[in-house]
Amino acid sequence: MNIVLLGAPGAGKGTQAAKLVSEEGLCHISTGDILRQAVKDQTELGMKAKAFMDAGDLVPDELIIDLMRERIQQPDTAKGVILDGFPRTTTQAVALDTMLSELGRPLDAALLIDVDPEIIVGRLTSRRMCRECGAIGTAADGDTCKKCGGEMYQRDDDNETTVRNRLEVYEKSTSPLIDYYRGCDLLVTIDGDRDPEVVFVDVKSVLK
Ligand code: ADP
Ligand code: ZN
Hints:
CATH architecture: 3-Layer(aba) Sandwich
Order of helices and strands: EHEHHHEHEHEEEHHEH
Bound molecules: adenosine-5'-diphosphate, zinc ion
Shape: globular
Number of domains: 1
Mean pLDDT: 95
CATH topology: Rossmann fold
Number of helices: 9
Low-confidence stretches: none
CATH superfamily: P-loop containing nucleotide triphosphate hydrolases
């Protein structure tokens, strides 16, 4: 099973992906997580990507496509992948089609987790993330990760100004992918403005 998760920043892609990993054993690839790790490790990729990420802009397609071409060939992807944060532009989507057809592994579905932008601003500005394990929580959960005890922090790009720019970038560059996948007959839309557990019931029913 190879799945693309579509949806605005903060729609809940990472939350649903984490559930799919723990319940279905799929391999989760989040370009945002890979890039944040690269920034933390001060790799060449991380140093190139940081300024774009801090501004809420997209990292250039070439960097992301090179990164993904390599990642998708790792052995842990053989049973299926859940792609979170990639593709984010039509150029990336076309590159993904090529990568997958070279591997002989077609895409099964593109799941759009649909949430109203105004709800998203509130969600993202109160979002917190664990420094150690990447778990996602909210400001109301306190400073300690429920999973590993690590420190919960606010991502640099989860401030209101950057969030609004990320939403604009989403509208302009990423939302055209909705039509792209509708055209390939792969699009499934799920109402993301509900409790994550309820959303997950729909996500699982699509995968059956
Ligand atoms: P979000 O919460 O916005 O979905 P992510 O964690 O997926 O955030 O990504 C954080 C940032 O990493 C993005 O704002 C962007 O700068 C960069 N990024 C992640 N994936 C991509 C991609 N496929 N193409 C370009 N930039 C990306
Ligand atoms: Zn943690």
